[in-house]
Target: MFS transporter
Amino acid sequence: MTEPAPASTGSAPTPVNPRSRVLVASLIGTTIEFYDFYIYATAAVLVFPTLFFPSDDPTTALLSSFAVFGAAMVARPIGAMVFGHLGDRLGRKGTLVASLLTMGIATFLIGVLPTYAQAGWVATALLVVMRLAQGFALGGEWSGAALIATENAPKGKRALFGTFPQLGAPLGFIIGNGLFLVIGALLPSAAGADPSQPSEAFLDWGWRIPFLFSAVMVAIGLWVRMRLVEAPVFTRTREAGLVRKLPLATVFRGHWKQLVLGTFFMLATYVLFYLMTTFSLSFGRTPTDAAVPGLGYGYTTFVLMLIFGVLFFAVFTLVSGPLADKYGRRRTLIGVTACIVVFGLVWVPLIGLGTLGVVLWLVLGFTLMGMTFGPMGALLPELFPTSVRYTGSGISYNVSSILGAAVAPFIAVALWEAGDGSPWLVGVYLSAMGVLTLIALLLGKETKDVALDEAEAPEADGRAGEAAPAAASSTTV
Model:
């Protein structure tokens, strides 16, 4: 299948995005997307088991809520394929606007859904549909934001620039949970009620506010992204006639090894993050005298502890960028992943030290999270040439979400129960996933010096052995 190359634009200079605009656009978009995504994660623990999955068994209700939470991960690779196709065929800017708008609409609609008590199974079904829409949108968001950052990065600073879209995860978490915290404080439980449980007003309408507020954030994000121009790397690829008519077919045919490696590069990262956020929120708030005992902290106390830990996530995400630029993505991540394996085996003794140990557990976990998540913003895009970079990096990132994030909270709760309230099996699970990522990293190659611009330097692209002429009248899939 072929596609005629566009006519040359002559000597007219290619518009360039200011560095500040690149960093802000890549950061604000992922912050909004992760805010939207993780306010659901908080609600999935805090209120959705009661409002949408009523059951006589609290654990069954929680697992049902986690199952819908995980269902969105299945939609993410589909979103990566659809938005990846658009991003590689039509451009990064318009695709990013579309993904952000899709996420914003789905999140806002969750805020106006009826509950199970009002509409029965219809309410639950609508929640599932909106959650799938969230996953579909996030499937196209991350890779586009990472490409905006790395394809516009100056020489030698791709990993640093790639950490800015990664910052959206901790910032979105802090904003989302902070808003839940403020609303919970303004709507306290009645005197004598369990302070770890949401108040009646919070269950009635307070939980809707973070979902409705997302509309304001999306409007800001759209305004910022509409001011971007296409990266010169993509523009030159399009002008050289290297745009693929079917990027998905090309990436599966010529880059399947990179897809597999990229998926396992992200596995430990996903498992660690969802254990440290979604699972830990449930584990931390469960009373010590429950059938499956937890840590017994009140909601406000534990969320403040989580937010404190996530601050380290944000700081070390930025720290990881210069390290990956200096020492290489592979070497940096091998060291961090080895630490994740060890961390999974020692977190139970840490928790046994009391509150100080719990705080140390959160700080160490989120520090490792920042160090492993930060370099991914450069590593995954560097695995693929420009013509299929949106599709390839997006599929790797989001297929890993099924293997890691979709099942992590569900498996963790089951292992928590199997351990009679002790999370030692959860730690072993994290370590095992870390070993798989470590193997993938050892099998992979360093990408720090890979050329991103296949139109100018196709010979530098050894990722698939599919060099194309610098200028062509047609593009072959």
In short: DSSP finds 21 helices and no strands in the chain. Residues 99 and 401 are 17 Å apart (CA to CA).
